Known about the structure:
Cysteine Rich Protein, Fhl1, 2 strands, alpha+beta, 19% helix, two-stranded antiparallel sheet, 22% strand
Amino acid sequence: MAEKFDCHYCRDPLQGKKYVQKDGHHCCLKCFDKFC
């Protein structure tokens, strides 16, 4: 069973990409720079 692995903000799939985990949410680097 695969869990959904998308950016919390833009919903882009994060599979195989770099991301940041912030406050229990996964966030792509683009959105991390913009929102965090």
